[in-house]
Amino acid sequence: RLVDYRARRPLLTFRRDRWTSFEAPTLEVRVVQDATGAPFLLLSGPEPDVEWERFAAAVEQIVERLGVRLAVNFHGIPMGVPHTRPVGI
Q1: SS3 call for 40
Q2: Dihedral sign of CA atoms 8, 26, 80, 52 in order
Q3: What are the sequence ranges of the domains in the chain?
Q4: Is the pLDDT of residue 39 over 90?
Q5: How many CB atoms lie within 10 A of CB 60?
Q6: Where are the alpha helices (DSSP H) in 1-89?
Q7: What is the band of 3 on the pLDDT scale with cuts at 50, 70, 90?
């Protein structure tokens, strides 16, 4: 419900004479570790196209249930910068 399939087509595999697989975009919460071995939660996947309020409420429930105290956002945006040049963060 969060994805507008008219704007963002799912990955489909066509073999010979038929579609053999469909991969819907997913959002995942995983426990991973940083370079020092400290665990943290990683929410990854495409941002929603619609129903932002519902998505935000679901993330808030996860944050509260798991006792998250710090949230860090990292987001990439398209820029007119050649890949050969350094990009400041």
Answers
A1: strand
A2: positive
A3: 25-72
A4: yes
A5: 11
A6: 52-66
A7: confident
